[in-house]
Recover the amino acids of this structure.
């Protein structure tokens, strides 16, 4: 008989990962790193999804299914995001987001 | 009901009446779309062929209407154009003697002028443009003539005005034609305003704009509101004055001579300018009950006839003589309408179309040969242009109303009708104008064709026009000789009278009395005497120099100056009326710029101000956007979580 890891632990880990990613998005300047931080936030959400899904057991598997959707969206997001970073890098040799201010009104 | 009638009848040529109008339209569209790139010189034959088909159909319809006997009115509906509330307007043709006669005249004269134009315009760069506007004009003219209601008529009315503008300004790169085109357009706008008012009032008074519904109700409307009929009639007459160049809206027509000569012949002599006469003749039922309006028509017509004839006496440009002559002859037609002889007016319209088109085309032939319009530099051209000379002499005789030429029968009938219907003064004006007419046309022909050549260089290079131009002259000459006798003999009981009687009978409520023969002969003798006298005076002055024209001009002194300057009417319009208009329109313009546009500009400035401030939010730094997304998220969590846990309460 295995000991159940309490749900709170999963949620705490998920929240920690989410805010680490969140902080990374806000403070880092390298566009690639920002994308990685976004991935971290998405996977934090995934962790919360599977934890709740597991806890609710056979009653509701929708949480697990949602994770698959998040994977798909995340893959698409990374593809588009990296393409933007590449295009940016070709136009000017930098991936520092603070140096790109063309959209200033 | 009409539809049921139509279905019981077998198809005949009258059901094809819309083709008469649509075939020229098709030619105009084809030439307009493909003329400049591909068709080039083919546009002329295409338009001419279309008009040829149209003329054949028009003639067949004319004869079919004659054959229809006692019930010649037919309605051919193409489709319903609009139905708004009580107002229904159909694209519907009314084929009755009046419109059939007009269709006949318009299509045949137009066809001949198209043939002629192939020669006259052959060296022009705008050849294809010319043969786009010309059939388009014919289309609109036929819409005007065929319409069974005032609204559709107005479509044609505006359309011919537009084509007239385009064709007067055909050589738009020169300043004079461009100005003349604008002048014609604006003067016509004043007339169109009258037409519009008349149309609206007609709808308000009668609840319909269709001729066949309006005219039977005239007596009923007259019973409880006679004044409205007078107002409607006067409003329509303002429209007619604009289109048919009557006082005070005549001065665009002489200036319209800046256009190519075939245009002058077709639009500004034979067809479009008669639209006003046609409008009044068509509305005879209204005018007959309109009280004072009819007198106004008669007086304006007589005064215009006299006034324009006096100006024509001293003109030196051959086309201008013809232009003032046209204004004068249109005055005769209105005189006829005003004294209650609409049939005589339509009769004169038909004969005038032939001989005036011929005079213009003849002038065009002279201009084509000499490239000169000033008669003072011509002279002696008879030997060089024999066909042109003889056909123009015939047309001139018809204009001078010498028997048995066409103009005699119709003009004599008009002046006789004025006398017999109790307008002796107007009769006197008509006869005196006849004398002036004979004088100026004889003078013009003499100066052009007789005497010594005054400019030898010009004389040496003159040559007779090609057959494509002279054959139409000959056909029109035949018309100018025969149209009067064929249509109008015997007087008051000729073919044209019996034919048109059903169309205008509403006005008289029965057949007109035929006056005794002696009276007719006496009146005819008077007008023939006037015509001969005018011719004789002109010949004496210009052929025998007794009295010498220059001496006469000097003796007349101020009168001559007055006529030479066309009674200073253009100057009067320019200084007094246009000065006043400029002030009014200047004020309106200032109101528009400062108030109306000002409001719009201020609104725009406000939006710019707000936007200018708001744009600072957009820093362009990705970090800032991310931070605002995060802040929004935090705010959402706080608010939503606050309500969910009960920390925050509503």
């Amino acid at each position: 008989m295995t000991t159940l890891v309490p749900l709170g632990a999963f949620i705490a880990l998920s929240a920690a990962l989410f805010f680490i990613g969140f902080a990374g998005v806000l403070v880092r300047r390298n566009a690639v790193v920002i994308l990685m931080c976004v991935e971290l936030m998405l996977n934090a959400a995934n962790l919360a999804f599977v934890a709740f899904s597991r806890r609710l057991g056979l009653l509701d598997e929708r949480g697990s299914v949602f994770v698959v959707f998040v994977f798909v969206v995340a893959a698409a997001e990374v593809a588009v995001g990296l393409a933007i970073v590449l295009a940016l890098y070709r136009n000017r040799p930098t991936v520092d987001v603070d140096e790109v201010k063309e959209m200033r009104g | 009901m009409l539809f049921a009638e139509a279905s019981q009848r077998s198809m005949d040529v009258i059901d094809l009446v819309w083709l008469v109008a649509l075939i020229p339209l098709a030619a105009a569209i084809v030439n307009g779309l493909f003329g400049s790139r591909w068709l080039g010189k083919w546009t002329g034959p295409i338009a001419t062929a279309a008009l040829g088909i149209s003329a054949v159909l028009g003639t067949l319809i004319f004869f079919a209407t004659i054959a229809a006997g006692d019930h010649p009115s037919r309605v051919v509906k193409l489709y319903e154009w609009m139905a708004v509330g009580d107002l229904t307007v159909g694209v519907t043709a009314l084929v009755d003697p009046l419109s059939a006669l007009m269709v006949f005249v318009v299509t045949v004269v137009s066809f001949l002028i198209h043939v002629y134009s192939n020669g006259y315009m052959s060296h022009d760069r705008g050849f294809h443009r010319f043969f786009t506007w010309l059939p388009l004009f014919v289309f609109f003219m036929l819409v005007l003539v065929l319409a069974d209601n005032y609204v559709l008529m107005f479509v044609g009315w505006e359309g011919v005005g537009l084509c007239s503008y385009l064709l007067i300004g055909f050589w738009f790169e020169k300043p004079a034609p461009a100005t003349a085109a604008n002048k014609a357009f604006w003067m016509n706008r004043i007339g169109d305003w009258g037409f519009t008012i008349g149309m609206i009032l007609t709808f308000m008074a009668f609840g319909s704009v269709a001729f066949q519904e309006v005219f039977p109700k005239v007596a009923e409307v007259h019973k409880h509101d006679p004044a409205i009929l007078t107002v409607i009639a006067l409003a329509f007459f303002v429209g007619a004055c604009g289109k048919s160049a009557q006082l005070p809206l005549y001065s665009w027509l002489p200036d319209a001579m800046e256009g190519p000569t075939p245009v002058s012949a077709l639009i500004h002599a034979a067809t479009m300018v008669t639209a006003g006469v046609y409008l009044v003749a068509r509305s005879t039922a209204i005018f007959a009950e309109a009280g004072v309006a009819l007198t106004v028509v008669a007086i304006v017509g007589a005064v215009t006839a006299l006034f324009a004839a006096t100006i024509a006496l001293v003109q030196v440009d051959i086309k201008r003589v013809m232009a003032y002559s046209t204004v004068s002859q249109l005055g005769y037609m209105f005189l006829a309408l005003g004294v209650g002889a609409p049939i005589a007016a339509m009769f004169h319209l038909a004969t005038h179309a032939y001989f005036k088109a011929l005079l213009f085309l003849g002038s065009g032939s002279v201009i084509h040969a000499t490239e000169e319009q000033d008669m003072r530099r011509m002279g002696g051209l008879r030997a060089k242009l024999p066909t042109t000379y003889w056909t123009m002499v015939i047309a001139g005789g018809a204009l001078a109303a010498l028997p048995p030429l066409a103009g005699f029968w119709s003009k004599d009938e008009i002046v006789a009708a004025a006398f017999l219907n109790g307008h002796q003064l107007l009769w006197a004006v008509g006869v005196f104008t006849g004398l002036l007419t004979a004088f100026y046309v004889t003078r013009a022909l003499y100066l052009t064709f007789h005497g010594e050549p005054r400019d030898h260089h010009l004389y040496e290079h003159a040559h007779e026009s090609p057959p494509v131009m002279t054959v139409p002259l000959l056909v029109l000459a035949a018309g100018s000789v025969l149209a009067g006798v064929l249509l109008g003999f015997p007087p008051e009981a000729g073919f044209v009278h019996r034919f048109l009687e059903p169309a205008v009978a509403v006005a008289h409520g029965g057949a007109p009395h035929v006056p005794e023969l002696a009276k007719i002969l006496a009146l005819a003798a008077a007008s023939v005497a006037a015509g001969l006298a005018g011719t004789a005076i002109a010949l004496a002055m210009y052929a025998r120099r007794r009295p010498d024209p220059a001496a006469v001009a000097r003796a007349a002194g101020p009168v001559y100056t007055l006529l030479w300057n066309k009674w200073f009417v253009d100057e009067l319009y320019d200084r007094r009326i246009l000065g006043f208009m400029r002030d009014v329109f200047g004020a309106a313009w200032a109101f528009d710029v400062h108030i109306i546009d000002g409001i719009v500009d201020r609104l725009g400035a406000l939006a710019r101000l707000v936007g200018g401030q708001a744009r600072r939010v957009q820093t362009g730094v990705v970090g800032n956007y991310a931070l605002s997304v995060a802040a929004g998220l935090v705010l959402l969590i706080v608010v939503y979580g606050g309500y969910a846990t009960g920390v925050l309460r509503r």
